[in-house]
Automatic annotation (TrEMBL):
Keywords: Cell membrane, G-protein coupled receptor, Glycoprotein, Lipoprotein, Membrane, Palmitate, Phosphoprotein, Receptor, Transducer, Transmembrane, Transmembrane helix. One of its GO terms (molecular function) is G protein-coupled receptor activity. Gene3D superfamilies: Rhodopsin 7-helix transmembrane proteins (1.20.1070.10). This is G-protein coupled receptor 12. Pfam families: 7tm_1 (PF00001).
Amino acid sequence: MNEDLKVNVSGLPRDYLDAGAAGNVSAAVSSQVPGVEPEPELVVNPWDIVLCTSGTLISCENAIVVLIIFHNPSLRAPMFLLIGSLALADLLAGIGLIVNFVFAYLLQSEATKLVTIGLIVASFSASVCSLLAITVDRYLSLYYALTYHSERTVTFTYVMLVMLWGTSICLGLLPVLGWNCLQDESTCSVVRPLTKNNAAILSISFLFMFALMLQLYIQICKIVMRHAHQIALQHHFLATSHYVTTRKGVSTLAIILGTFAACWMPFTLYSLIADYTYPSIYTYATLLPATYNSIINPVIYAFRNQEIQKALCLICCGCIPSSLSQRAPSPSDV
């Protein structure tokens, strides 16, 4: 009798109590076990797509130049070695942009960030240094025209290549070896994980090399104008012919230097004044033109060269057009 009272003390039927208890247990369990949330969709930054596309174009374009120079044993003069160095550096820069896109969205880790930024810094540094080396080679070919084609010039070219690639690799290894901002975000530059000091050194180095290139191109321009004037006097050319020839040479030099400055100067100056707190859209907007320089380089330095044009025609169609075989180099090809 007492047992029945204990069970029905609530005045409710036993079946209702059992159902209610089961419901309470079920509710308690469901409140403790979190629901399976849908995985967040992968959102791709459009700027990263543009950079990856730019990297693909850079890689394809410069791979052609590297293959042409590597495939032709006749293209082993100092000038072609430096053009090949420029094309190889730009090729690695394009690959770096592609790898950066893949790692950013498919394989995210601190190690991949450091390796990717190291590759990009090293390749772009080698590209800018190769441009400076080409400028030095052009100056020497005009200033020391009589002794330029000698073994000493070849040796000097190899020394320049070793120095520029050694310096570039060292700059690329700095983030990997610990000079990065992964542990202290307050020291980050506009390009994570580069530190502010690292970005400042790269920017100041670029400004120094740009000033040196500007000075060398001014000297080249003076030499070209003097040579063109002497040729005009020897062959009794008209003054207008001398003016047209000189103007072509000066225009070519202006295009080379102007393109280089227009591509790299915005990002260089922005890296000096900005840090990680600035909106990322400014970084993308200034970095993208810098990548365009690697797209333009093959057009300016490789595909305009008569020997490379001949080699490209031989590879593509197995013949050399008469327009190329009969064409003589002009001062505008400097």
